[in-house]
Amino acid sequence: MRRAFLIAIPYVWLLALFLVPFFIVLKISLSDTDLAIPPYTPTLDLSAGWVGIREFFSQLDLENFIWLTEDDLYWKAYLSSVKIALISTIFTLIVGYPIAYAMARAPEEWRPTLMMLVILPFWTSFLIRVYAWMGILSNEGYLNQLLLWTGIISTPLTILNTNTAVYIGIVYTYLPFMILPIYSSLERMDGSLIEAAEDLGCSRLQAFWLVTIPLSRPGIIAGCFLVMIPVIGEFVIPSLLGGSGTLMIGKVLWEEFFSNRDWPVASAVAVVLLLILVIPIVLFQRNQQKQTEAEQ
Amino acid sequence: MNKLSWFNTVSLTLGFAFLYIPMIILIIFSFNESKLVTVWAGFSTKWYGELVQNEAFLDAAWVTLRVAVFSSTLATILGTAAAYVLVRGGRFFGRTLFSGMIYAPLVMPEVITGLSLLLLFIGIGLDRGILTIVLAHTTFSMCFVSVVVSSRLVTFDQSLEEAALDLGCSSAQAFRLVTLPIIAPAVVSGWLLAFTLSLDDLVIASFTSGPSATTLPIKIFSAVRLGVSPEINALSTLMIAVVTVGVITASLVTKRAMMRQKQDEQAAARTE
After folding, report:
1. Which CATH number belongs to the domain containing residue B249 in this structure?
2. How far apart are CA A169 and CA A131, in angstroms?
3. Is B145 a domain residue?
4. Is residue B20 situated within a structural domain?
5. pLDDT < 70: residue spans in chain B
6. What residues of chain A lie within 8 A of the CB of B232, using their CB?
7. Which residues of A63-74 are buried (b: 16+ CB within 10 A; e: fewer)?
8. Which residue(s) pair with B191 in the sheet?
9. Residue B162, Cα to own-chain centre: how many angstroms?
């Protein structure tokens, strides 16, 4: 009895506030846009019972989804979100791996402090961390001041409100998500394996490539997913650091909802975004499951 | 492997410089006299003074704090229950769906969570305000709490619970007297995580808040869209200071608790 109660409360909570809302989004994405409050006409009328359901299917048109394919804005936004996410994940890996590697090689008594230094920015407000770069990257910003002062450039570089700024912002804010899983897989690695590889004639670089990288692969995969999946739907970074040329689907959805007040199209955008994300999310979960099984 | 090679030293130095210099610049320029943020004009704390008098910010901070306290407490209770069910609950109907619903929100884009919750609240006719933000924040942060707590539950020795049951505890007593004290550090860090997630959230709060309840991130975001301002720098510095003190205190407390636990376990092993 008590067990059933313990299961039921979080279960019902998640059903009501996580799963049901998705079905509402799905339902509204199939509705017609209307100039009313709320601004859509539902096409599915469950109170009419079976007749309502049958009518819904006979009239089912995917007009909002067709609209998404007809207007270039949307598929360009999806494509560019995925592109930005892929490129910035690679950059984050390139920046994060050496840090994680050095942390795992650091003397043991340093490691808790180093861990804390990586985690600390993660606890600070995301918004503030993105905002910090606005002052650095703007035309009169600190970076341009420094470069002009040292004489490297003679006219200020335009970085803020371009995709470059978006990449910098993503690498900066998501770096801890990349470092931590890689660090935890490198830390567990047995150092004598490298020695064995070197004894058997590997150069240091070969040993790194043939031993260290494969052994840290679960961490690399987890880190890449943890960066890539949320970046695809990112809103704050493109809207603060990106310019009018930065197309990302999270921003499009936001504007569709708040500026155009087109709820059915916003919902359709969300449904398609979710379909795009299902594949990486499932792959990520499988990777995590394999890892937990390996640990047990 | 006692000394770092030059390569590792360089990557640690550059890495931490990259992580910390932007925030250090932000903090330094919050003490800038000039209204122009990028030009240094002498030391001053006047922006902090203006901030304290800005009622819109103070109101928003109060709303944010209340939302964070309520939602993180609720999320900790629900998340701990969910973790316990997942790790110790055995098999039950719809277990796969349940664990899917725990893990999915961790990677769900915030715009989707926000939009879907808003449409739900409108659908059932709930007025948007503090309550709806609390419900929304509880839903996504309970999943984070449950991940943190279940990782602790997995590693601890189940025979301790069984021993308590053998010695005559009811299952509720065993949970309160044995399990809860052992997982307490994880529960506390789960609460802290939920609390900061709630303090931090802009997107979900924007969707689920109404005109009556504006949170600090919403306020900051609308101010920041217009560009960099010294007042926001001052506010950011205060928030960074609070978080830094909080995280360091929390990590010292958990370290002490873990050391005490280890000592207790060793003492128990000796008396055996």
Report:
1. 1.10.3720.10
2. 9
3. yes
4. no
5. 1-3, 272
6. 131
7. bbbeebeeeeeb
8. none
9. 33
**Separation in Å, CA of A251 to nearest CA in chain B:** 9
CATH of domain A67-295: 1.10.3720.10
**B77 is a domain residue:** yes
CA distances from B87 to A24, A94, A214, B189, B239 (A): 31, 36, 30, 18, 36
Q: Identify whether the C-beta of residue B268 lies closer than 8 Å to the C-beta of residue B163.
A: no
Domain ranges of chain A: 67-295
pTM: 0.86
Per-residue pLDDT reduced to its tens digit, B53-107: 888 889 999 999 999 999 999 999 999 999 988 888 778 888 888 888 888 888 7
Q: How far is B91 from chain A (nearest CA, A)?
A: 11
Q: Using CA atoms, how far apart are residues B213 and B39, in angstroms rounded to an integer?
A: 35
Would you state the structure tokens that stand for residue A239, as one six-digit string? 């809207």
What would the pLDDT profile of B14-30 be if each residue is shown by its tens digit?
999 999 999 999 999 88
For residue B65, count CB atoms less than 10 angstroms from its CB and return exposed for 0-12, middle for 13-18, buried for 19 or more: middle
- The residue among A275, A23, A121, A144 whose CA lies nearest residue B240 is A121
User: How far apart are the C-alpha atoms of B79 and B94, rounded to whole Å?
Assistant: 17
Whether A181 and chain B come into contact, CB under 8 Å, resolves to no
Q: Does the CB of A132 have a partner CB in chain B at under 8 Å?
A: yes
